[in-house]
């Protein structure tokens, strides 16, 4: 006997969110952060360096390297996408902007896949609301659209999504293809051919983006769930299960042939995992989706006894468990958790038809206060940077970013002002009396997260770019070495990000430092700690010329040496 659905939804509660408003909100979230900035430190600049090397033909497409340094992640597809963009688009375009175009498309694809995956899951029989005795309950398609709107809003509201979804890295690619895989599993009963194609695209994309083990485990779990599915619209369950197993086998074979299988598991009780920091990460990263997801699991707890019938619960729950497991056993933890945000947002969406009015009001008021105060703080600090009043915020910025000179630009100011006005209008709409819509409790969280991101990427972007990019640091290096554009410079003990930054911001010919050929170059750039570990035979022929410290982090220093 199937337990009764906890969702009680009338037809007037499943109004569709206006498409123009949803598209405008998505555009306001996607484009800021990709436009108007330099490549940022570590992951962003390192990926950019490998893309440039591939596009220039300086390295193998199957074994990319940069001055002999292999990527920190095994994924190939993200580097290919950036390199292809550099080769396709005109060379007169900024390469920093060109390599981001495929990743803009990946983020858009994530949002689209998220909406459709929730839509198809909400159409399954186990997800339907209670049928009223005299009619008037929500129609299945209208109900599914409203739940899908809520799922997308929940994803955009997650605080951990903004920064990592705007990096040109393998983690954004994993996010996109993981969501496509969920869409493939959700759409099997409604669009079999499309779902079959998306199965291969999603699992292969995950594999080529550096997550072959996760792709295999996710695919195997979906195959088992599909085999046992009963009481849904899905037919030929056995055939579908075999198809998923074949897709897993094929992508595993591709990963083996390309050498992508490399386990990087750590013991969370022994190696570098602080449980307190992990707890904070799990709390804020998926906020506010995770409290709603817990509410979903509680209200739908009786349906969890029949997991094969209620795939709207078990499918996202399976991916969320995998993402949390990867967070606990791999580094970096925050980027591993990124893949689980669509799953936790899907679960959060199914809390909406069961949400009590008091809980919805609590979410609204907390969101209103939090994001309004945050927006005011961003504006006050920006005004202080521009005018010097109030004085303390400007002094704090000057202390944290010495050498930074604030500038004013009309376009970012206009965008920030428009976003602020839109937020005020949204708050006014939400506080007025209006017809009920089950997605209304997630409008303010998604709008507030978008407001904060837009303000940071417009008003604060010059200061953030100064602190997070390598351009100011490289300007010091350029000023310290009186060499012409064709000069040869050794690099010793530098990481991928530093090498990529030197290749992009300086005109010199770089080569790895080796004692037997170091005399070919007059200059060497290294880190002081690394240079101190070398033998006297390697260092005696070099004298210190200068030290270039990052303006925002005096501990991040490059030692510049000149041959005696």
Automatic annotation (TrEMBL):
The keyword Metal-binding does not apply. The keyword Transmembrane helix applies. Signal peptide: none annotated. Keywords: Membrane, Transmembrane, Transmembrane helix. The chain crosses the membrane at residues 20-40, 101-122, 171-190, 202-228, 240-260, 281-298, 336-355, 362-383, 410-429, 441-461. This is Glycosyltransferase. It comes from Comamonas terrigena.
């Amino acid at each position: 006997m199937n337990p009764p659905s906890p969702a009680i939804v009338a037809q007037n509660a499943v109004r569709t969110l206006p498409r123009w408003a949803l598209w405008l909100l998505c555009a306001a979230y996607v484009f800021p952060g990709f436009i108007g900035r330099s490549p940022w430190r570590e992951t962003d600049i390192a990926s950019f360096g490998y893309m440039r090397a591939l596009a220039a033909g300086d390295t193998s497409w199957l074994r990319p390297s940069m001055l002999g340094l292999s990527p920190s992640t095994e994924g190939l597809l993200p580097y290919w996408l950036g390199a292809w963009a550099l080769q396709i688009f005109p060379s007169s375009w900024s390469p920093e902007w060109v390599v981001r175009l495929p990743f803009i498309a990946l983020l858009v694809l994530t949002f689209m896949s998220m909406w459709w995956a929730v839509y198809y899951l909400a159409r399954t029989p186990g997800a339907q609301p209670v049928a009223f005795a005299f009619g008037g309950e929500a129609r299945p398609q209208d109900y599914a659209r409203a739940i899908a709107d809520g799922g997308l809003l929940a994803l955009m509201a997650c605080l951990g999504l903004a920064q990592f979804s705007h990096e040109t890295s393998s983690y954004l690619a994993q996010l996109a293809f993981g969501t496509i895989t969920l869409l493939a599993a959700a759409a099997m009963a409604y669009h079999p051919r499309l779902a079959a194609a998306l199965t291969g695209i999603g699992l292969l994309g995950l594999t080529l983006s550096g997550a072959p083990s996760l792709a295999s485990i996710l695919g195997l779990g979906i195959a088992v769930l599909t085999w046992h599915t009963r009481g849904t619209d899905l037919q030929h369950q056995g055939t579908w299960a075999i198809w998923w197993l074949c897709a897993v086998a094929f992508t595993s074979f591709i990963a083996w042939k390309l050498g992508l299988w490399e386990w990087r598991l750590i013991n969370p009780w022994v190696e570098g995992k602080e449980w307190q920091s992990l707890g904070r990460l799990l709390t804020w990263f998926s906020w506010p989706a995770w409290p709603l997801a817990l509410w979903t699991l509680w209200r739908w707890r009786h349906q969890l006894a029949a997991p094969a019938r209620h795939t709207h619960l078990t499918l996202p729950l399976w991916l969320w468990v995998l993402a949390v497991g990867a967070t606990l056993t791999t580094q970096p933890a925050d980027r591993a958790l990124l893949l689980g945000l669509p799953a936790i947002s899907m679960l959060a969406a199914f809390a909406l038809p069961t949400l009590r009015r008091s809980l919805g009001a609590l979410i609204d008021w907390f969101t209103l206060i939090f994001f309004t105060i945050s927006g005011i703080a961003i504006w006050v600090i920006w005004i202080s940077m521009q005018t010097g009043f109030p004085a303390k915020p400007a002094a704090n910025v000057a202390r944290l970013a010495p050498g930074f000179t604030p500038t004013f630009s009309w376009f970012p100011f206009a965008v920030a002002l428009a976003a602020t006005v839109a937020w005020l209008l949204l708050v006014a709409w939400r506080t007025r009396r209006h017809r009920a819509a089950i997605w209304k409790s997630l409008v303010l969280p998604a709008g507030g997260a978008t407001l904060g991101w837009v303000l940071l990427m417009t008003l604060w972007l010059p200061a953030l770019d100064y602190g997070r990019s390598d351009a100011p640091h490289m300007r010091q290096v350029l000023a310290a070495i009186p060499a012409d554009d064709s000069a040869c410079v050794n690099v010793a003990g530098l990481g991928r990000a530093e090498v990529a930054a030197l290749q992009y911001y300086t005109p010199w010919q770089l080569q790895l430092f080796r004692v037997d050929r170091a005399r070919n170059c007059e200059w060497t750039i290294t880190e002081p700690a690394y240079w101190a570990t070398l033998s006297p035979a390697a260092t005696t022929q070099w004298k210190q010329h200068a030290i270039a410290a990052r303006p925002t982090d005096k501990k991040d220093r490059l030692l510049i040496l000149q041959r005696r």
